[in-house]
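ok so i was messing around last nite and threw this chain in just to see what happens. nothing serious, just curious
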Amino acid sequence: MTIADGMHQIVDNINGAKSARVSDIAELRSEVGAIRANAQKDLKQINRTRRHDATVQHKTLHKYVKNLQHDSQDMLGGFSANRIAMGQECREELGDFTRQLKKDVTDIRLDAVHMIHGFADERVSRGIELSHMLKSYNDGIVGDVEQLIGMFKKERSLVQEDLAEAHEIWQNQGSGGHVYTKAPKRTEAKAAEPTQTPEEKAEAALKQKILKVIKASPDGITLAKAGKKIKVEWRKLVRPAKELLEDGVVTKRETQYFPS
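result:
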């Protein structure tokens, strides 16, 4: 084979390779065109799907927002109604509480006034009772002193008589005479019987009435109930009841009095 033949062979090979490459390129272009067409078709489908989904989502979101606004308005309306109802209820409760508080304050004030008047009346009553007791005590002391003075004067006169008689006997013995005189029999002074004032008699009678009521109440009785039974204000029974306790004829537990 000559060089020219070789060259022709090479050129033929190059041309054949070139034709093959052109054919491959054409085929590749066809395939690329098909791929591009499919890609454009898919892209259009994707765009349509995206626009459809966006429309659906927009409608769904719009509906959700609308429902949310409606629910919010309902909730706000409910809150407003509840707030108004609770406010009205609170105002009514506050009004009732205020009225009750005013009533309680008025009652406490009236009770305080009554207690003050009661204390004043009791103070006056106690003052009068104490004045009577002091007067009775003073009268008793005066009577006892007068009685003691009378007894002392009587005893003093008897002692003076005895002294005079003893002095006379001593003088007779000193003059040498034997004179014996029998001493006169001394009569003891009769004790004066205690006298009771009208007040003391009334207190003794009241004391017996209280004792009778207490003995008739074995389960115990208060001075208030005892005063109602004997129709006497119970504060006047305090001192006689205390005397009965001191005498041991009655006992006391808390505010109840019992027969011994």
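not much to say yet. The radius of gyration is 67 Å.
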